[in-house]
Amino acid sequence: MARSLTHFLPLLLFVCFASIASVALIMTLSGERKLSELPSALIGKPVPVTELPSLSNPQAFIKIEATTATPYLVNFFASWCAPCRAEAPALAILGKQIDIIGVAYKDKPEDSRKFLADFGNPYRAIGIDNDGAAGLNWGVYGVPETYLISKDGIILKRHAGPIDGDILRDEFLPLIRSLQDRE
Amino acid sequence: MLSPEFGHFCLVLALVVSVVQIILPMAGILRDDARLTYFAEPLQLIASAAIFISFASLVYAFVVSDFSVQLVASHSHSLKPMIYKVTGSWGNHEGSLLLWIVILGLFGMLFVFREATSRLKTLTLMVMGGITLAFLAFSLFTSNPFTRLSPAPPDGRGLNPVLQDIGLALHPPMLYLGYVGLSVAFALAIAGLITGQVTRSWARITRFWVALAWSALTAGIALGSWWAYYELGWGGWWFWDPVENASLMPWLAATALLHSVIVVEKRQQMVSWTLLMAITAFSLSLVGTFIVRSGLLTSVHSFASDPARGIFILFILLGAVGLPLFLYALRAGSLTKGSDYALLSRETGLIINNYILVVSTFIVLIGTFYPLALELFTGAKITVGAPYFDATFNPVMGIGIVFMAIGPLTVWRRGMVGSARPALLLSGSVTIIAAVILLVGSGLSVAGIAGIALTFWLALSIGGDMLFRLRPWQAGIGARLRLPATQWGMWLAHFGMVIFLTGALASALFEQENVVRVSKGAEIALGHETLIFDGVEERIGPNYVTETALLRLFDRDGNLKDGLYPEKRFYPAERQTTTEAAIRTRLSGDHYAVLGDGSAESGYTLRLYHKPLVSWIWFGAVMMAIGGLIALYRRPQKAQRVMQPEQVPKEAE
C-alpha cells in the first residue's frame, strides 16, 4: 500500500503546481494581480540609515541618511537581473527629475560597472551591497526594487519589480511632481 | 491553391481527423476489432498532410507579402529579405504555434513509417492524436494564424531589426523538434501504462525517440544560447532567464529518461520511474512552450502574452499532465519489480544519475516558479537570478559529474569493468594532485578549481574507458572497434560534456575584461594584449545608420592581429537602436567588443573582453547532439548475434 501511495506523489506535486498557476492566472485575468504596490513595514517610517562602500571609489562610502535637502529614490539593482535591464529606460527618465541612489545588490563591482556602461547610469551615487546586508535591512524581496524617500527621510513608496512605462507615468512621476511642488 | 482560407480549412480538417483518430481505434480496441484499430495509421498520415499544407499556406502568404492576412501585416514587411519573410512566419505566437503542430505531425508521420503495427503503436497514435487535437483547438480558437484584415494595409509593420537574425530564425524549429519529439516518448509511456506491458521492445522503441528528441533539444538550446551570446551583446551565454530555464528543464528530464530507459531495455528495472520521466519530460516541454505565452512569467524574450490564452493553456496542461499522472498513480504499482543488483553496479549508477538530474530539474523549477508563488502569497515580485543557481545548481551538477566519470566503468548487476579500479585510482590521484597544486599556486576560487578538477577527471576517465575497452596495443583491434553505435555515441556525448565544461569554465575563470571611457587614439590594455581606439565613424547601412568604433587589436609583441568594429545601429523607420558586438572568434577564445554611449567630446564607453575557449561551449553541445544521433543507429539484429556471445551482456552502453 505504501508503495502504491508513492506513485501518487507526482500527481500531488502537479496539483500543487497547477493550483498556484491557476490562481495566478485567474488573478491576472481579473486584473487583481497588479504587483506594483507592495505593503512594507517601512512605509511611513524613517529610512534605515545605511552606509555602503561606493562603487566609483571603493575608499569612499555612500550614506543613505535620515535628512537630505530633497526627496530621492533608492533603487536596488544587480547586473544579473534581467528585469533591471528592462527598467533602465524608466530610470533614465526618473534620473533627470530626482536623485537616485543605486544599491548594487549581491553583485560583483566589476559586473555592476559593466551593467552601467551598457544600460546607462541614472544614479547620483551607487553603494555596493555585496553580501545583501543592506537589502536585508530594507526588507528587499529581490531586485529590482525602488523606494521613494521624502526629504525628511520617510519612506513614502515602495515598488518591487521593474518600473515600466505605465508605472512611471501613473505612479512615480505624479508623486514626485507633487513632492517637488510642495517645496 | 495555397490561399489562407485553404490553409485554415486544412487546419480544421486536421482537427476533425484527429478526433476520428482517437475514436475509431478506441472503438476498435474496446470491441477487439482490428479493422477499426487499423485506421490509426492512415488517419495520422492524413492529419499530418493537412497540417503541412496549412503551414505551407501560411509561409506562402508571408512569401508573397499578402498583407490582407493580419499576421503577415503585423509581422512582415515587403522590404524584408526573403529568408526573413519565410522565417518570419514562425517568429510570432500564432505562427510558432502552427510550427509546433507541424513538427507534431512530422513526428506522428515518422512514427507511423518507422514502427511495426502493434497494439502499442495504435495506442501511441491515439495519444498523439489527442495532443494534436488539443493544440489544433488552441490554435484555431485562440490564435488563428489565418485571420484576414480588411482593409489590407499597403505594407506590413514587421521590420523589427532585432528579429532579423538567422540564429533567432533557426532556433525555434530546432528547439521545437526537441520539445515535440518528447511527445512520442510521452505517448509511448501512456500506451505502456494502459497495456501494462513495458517490455524490452517498448524500451527499444522509446529509446530511439528519446535520443532523437534529446539531440534536437540539445542543439536547440545551444543555438539559443549562441544567439543570446552574439546578438544581445551582453557578453554572457546563459542568463537563467525563465525562457532559458523552460528549455533546460525538459532537457534535464529527457537526459534522465535517456539513461533510465537503457535500464529498462537491458535489465527490466526502473520501469515505473522511466514512465514517470517520459511523462515529466514532455510535461516540462509543455510548460516551456507555454511559459512564454501565458503571461505568467515575464522574460526578456517572451512573446506578447495574452491571459485569455492562459486559461486555454491551463486546461491543456491539466489534461495533458494531470490525466497521465493520475493513470501513472493507478497503474505504476503493478509495473514495479523487485531489484536484483548490487550497490556497486551500473543500475545504481544510473539511478543516482537520474536522481541528480531530477534534483537539478527541481532546482530550476523552483528558481523559475518560486517568484510566482511568492508573489501570490505575499504580493512581492522578485527575481531569483544567477546567484541562486550558482549556489544550488552548480554544486549538484558537480556531484553529477563525479558519477558521470564512474558510471560508465561499472557493469550491469554487480561490480566494475576489470580495469576500472586502477584507471579510476590513477586518474583520481592525478586529478587530486593537480587540484592541490592549483589551490596553492593559483589565485583561483575553490569552486573554480573544483570545476576544473572534475572536468579533468571526467576527461581522464572517459579516455581511460576508451583505452581499456579498445586496447589498441593488442592485436585484433578491428573486432573491438565494432562496438555498438550506442557505445560510440555515449563516448562522444560524454566527451562533448567535457568540451562544454572546459569552455564554460575557461571563459568564466580566465576572462579578461576592461570597461573604459576613452577618446580617439587611446591605448587600452586587455590582458597581455592591447587595443588602439581610432575613434568612431558614422556609416550608413541599407536601412539604418551606425556609429562604428574602430579598434585595432595587437598581440603582446605589438603585432597587429585584427580590427574590431563594434556598432551601434539606429533604425530610423522603427526608431530603434541596436548594439552589434564585434566578435573575433577563434578556437582559442573570442575577442568581444561592445560600443556603449558617448560622444567625440566626452569620449566613448567601450566594453572589451577576451573570453578564452568560449566557443567550446557550443562545440561541446554539438558533440553531445551528434553523440545522441549516432546512438540512434542500430546494427540489424542478426549481425549483433554474430558477435561473441560473452561480449554482449558485458557491453555497457
Layout of strands and helices, then pairs:
The complex is a heterodimer of chains A (183) and B (653).
Chain A: H1 2-6, H2 9-29, E1 50-53, E2 61-64, E3 72-77, H3 82-86, H4 88-97, E4 99-105, H5 109-119, E5 125-129, H6 133-138, E6 145-149, E7 155-160, H7 165-182
Parallel strand pairs in A: 3-4, 4-5
Antiparallel strand pairs in A: 1-2, 3-6, 6-7
Chain B: H1 4-30, H2 34-37, H3 40-63, H4 70-75, H5 82-88, H6 93-114, H7 119-142, H8 166-195, H9 200-231, H10 242-267, H11 271-294, H12 307-335, H13 346-378, H14 386-406, H15 420-441, H16 446-470, H17 477-481, H18 485-509, E1 512-518, E2 523-526, E3 529-540, E4 545-554, E5 560-564, E6 567-571, E7 576-580, E8 582-586, E9 589-599, E10 603-612, H19 616-630, H20 637-642, H21 647-650
Antiparallel strand pairs in B: 1-10, 2-3, 3-4, 4-5, 4-6, 6-7, 8-9, 9-10
Q: Any idea of the CATH class of the largest domain in chain A?
A: Alpha Beta
The span between the termini of chain B is 51 Å
pLDDT average of chain A, as an integer? 79
Class based on secondary structure composition and strand pairing of chain B: alpha+beta
Can you count the helices of chain B?
A: 21
Radius of gyration of chain B: 27 Å
What is the mean predicted local confidence, pLDDT of chain B?
85
**What is the third-level CATH name, the topology of the largest domain in chain A?**
Glutaredoxin
The residue ranges of chain A in which pLDDT falls below 50 over 5 or more consecutive positions are 34-38
Morphology of chain A: globular
Number of strands of chain B: 10
Number of domains of chain A: 2
What is the helix content of chain A?
Answer: 40-55%
Fraction of residues in H or I helices of chain B: 55-70%
- Tell me which protein chains meet in the greatest interface and how many residues each side has: A-B, 44 and 59 residues
β-strand percent of chain A reads 15-25%
Number of continuous helical runs of chain A: 7
Name given to the CATH architecture of the largest domain in chain A: 3-Layer(aba) Sandwich
Biggest sheet of chain B: strands, sense, closure? 6 strands, antiparallel
Tell me about the largest β-sheet of chain A. Answer: 5 strands, mixed
